[in-house]
Every structure is written in structure tokens, then in C-alpha cells.
Amino acid sequence: MLPWFNFWSKAVTVNPALFLYVVAVSETLLGLALILGVVRKPAYLAGIALSLLIWSVPEGFGGPYGPGSTDIGTGIIYAFVFVFLLIVNAGYGPRRLSVDYFIEKRYPKWRRVAETG
Hints:
It is a single chain. This protein starts with a helix and ends with a helix. It has helices at residues 2-14, 16-36, 40-56, 75-92, 99-106, 110-114. It contains 6 helices and no strands.
């Protein structure tokens, strides 16, 4: 795991503000997509990727590891929540209060972008 952490340490040291803004914008866009219900499938997939990235870099895969350590971190839990949202979306389809529902009524091909299954 040391090469992984060394890579990110060096990458972030070059321009920390860039990483700060990329993560902030990503979280904001993800939040808006979840609240509005727009481009849900890509939003859930991006949420999984972002959660795993946060879990693996700043949370250190749930470390530090030692006797009695039981905390695996929150990032992995969020990734499971996004997987669950993908499964629910595949099972129930578009919700009537989502933006995707209204877009799909007008443009049926939007379903390929927004829906799972």
C-alpha cells in the first residue's frame, strides 16, 4: 500500500488546490444530481468511484490498523449505498418526482443514459 499512498502524496503536493476544487465540484454536482434525480445512473456510478477514492486515499482504507481497531471508514459505506441505489433504480425505474422522469417522457432515448436495466 505504500506505493499507493506515495503516489497520492506526491500528486496532491504538486497542486493541492486543484484536488480541493475537483473534489468540491464533484461532490456538489453529485449532490445536485441526487436531489433533482437527473442522470441517476451516471451519478450513482460517479458516487461509487468518488466514495472509493475518498476511502482509499484520505481515509487510508479504514486505517490505522491495530489491536481493537474496528472502524473501516465511511467511504466504503457510501459506496455500498450507491450500489444499493443502482439496484433500487433497476428494480423500480424512474420516480415521478425526478427530472429524469420528465425528460424521458419527452425524449425516450434518455432512458439509456439515466436508467439501469
